[in-house]
Amino acid sequence: MQRTPIILGIESSCDETAAALYGEAGLLAHAVHSQVAIHADYGGVVPELASRDHIRKIAPLIENVCATAGHPTITGIAYTRGPGLVGALLVGASVAAGYGMGLSVPVLGVHHMEGHLLSPLLEAEPPAFPYVALLVSGGHTMLVAVEGVGRYRVLGESLDDAVGEAFDKAAKMLGLGYPGGPALSRLAAEGDPTAHAFPRPMCNRPGLDFSFSGLKTAVMLAIKSGGRTRAAQADIAASFQQAVVETLVAKCARAVRAAGMERLVVAGGVGANASLRAALAERGRVDGFALYFPRPAFCTDNAAMIALTGYLRRTQMRPGIVPAEAVPRWSLETLVPPASAAAS
Ligand code: KG4
Ligand code: ZN
């Protein structure tokens, strides 16, 4: 008897541990444990602490989603094979290999950024292919043309800091906690976004790449020359956020036009930023492109997107014992569609 496919997804690439189940009916259950409290004292992710906490949390999270979904029969497992922190990735890879062996089901290592690119498909009204995706997280800033599953063209990316990293560093300079993005945007709400004329990096040059390190330096100089009161700091935060948002909006509009597409998807943690959402929505109305945001829980790291990716690539899953693989650096453009991968 042919069993209906149900894929267990496992995510452990950075500081979130997550599990999810995805089947023909869509997402059956998902659960996330955030390690923010563990890393907060250090002002950033401590890789060894991340790995140890993944080990503690992953099996209970898997049991949790299985119970929530009524213990369905799992037919395959997808785990994040990369990119990410190698020790953290190895936890998910080993657990996936172990569960695969124990349940006698095939296992597939998937690309974390492909998960982010496909995450809007988890929503009730998903975008049709093709679309341009802006991926903005703590580790990545990318514009990608998505023609279909496994058909990705990187249009532009950050040459230095990722946007989330720039938010986190600016927040740290302003004495705000970790992760800094949400704290900085709260402070920005009190300030004047026109108070400082910070650079809009690379907006006046052609191309779709980004650079945020100059902006970081400008923030540092503004703090040094008088950013000590709360009002002054709020002005710096607001002006910084405005420079980032305007840069991202300009590049997104340029990418949609250059790719000749009508849809823009925004994914990754910075996609939760309210100013960015509002400015992109406004630009979409003016330029005539449709805008899609996964819900905030699917913008940040989660296993629902990994289970979904595994489900869409289930023809690639092969039975048998698989090695636990972790690939810290892995280019999106090396991926191929599931049909051609299964044939090769
Ligand atoms: O995708 P994500 O959860 O994790 C990875 O980096 O993979 O993104 C986290 C990043 C952090 O840098 C955080 O400061 C930023 O997203 N972030 C925000 C906001 N919420 C999260 N940045 C600006 N505004 C926000 N509201
Ligand atoms: Zn991510």
Strand and helix map with partners:
Blueprint: E1 6-11, E2 16-23, E3 26-34, H1 36-40, H2 47-68, E4 76-82, H3 86-103, E5 107-111, H4 112-118, E6 131-136, E7 141-148, E8 151-157, H5 163-173, H6 180-188, H7 213-224, H8 230-259, E9 263-267, H9 274-287, E10 290-292, H10 296-299, H11 304-312, H12 338-343
Parallel strand pairs: 1-4, 4-5, 6-9, 9-10
Antiparallel strand pairs: 1-2, 2-3, 6-7, 7-8
The chain binds 5'-O-[(R)-(carboxyoxy)(hydroxy)phosphoryl]adenosine and zinc ion.
- What is the N-to-C order of secondary-structure elements (H for helix, E for strand)? EEEHHEHEHEEEHHHHEHEHHH
Number of domains: 2
Helix-residue proportion: 40-55%
Chemical compounds bound to the protein: 5'-O-[(R)-(carboxyoxy)(hydroxy)phosphoryl]adenosine, zinc ion
What is the rounded distance between the termini? 27 Å
Q: What's the CATH first level of the largest domain?
A: Alpha Beta
The CATH superfamily name of the largest domain is: ATPase, nucleotide binding domain
Oligomer: single chain
Based on helices, strands and strand pairing, what is the structural class?
Answer: alpha/beta
What is the percentage of strand-forming residues?
15-25%
Proper CATH architecture of the largest domain: 2-Layer Sandwich
Global mean pLDDT: 93
Shape: globular
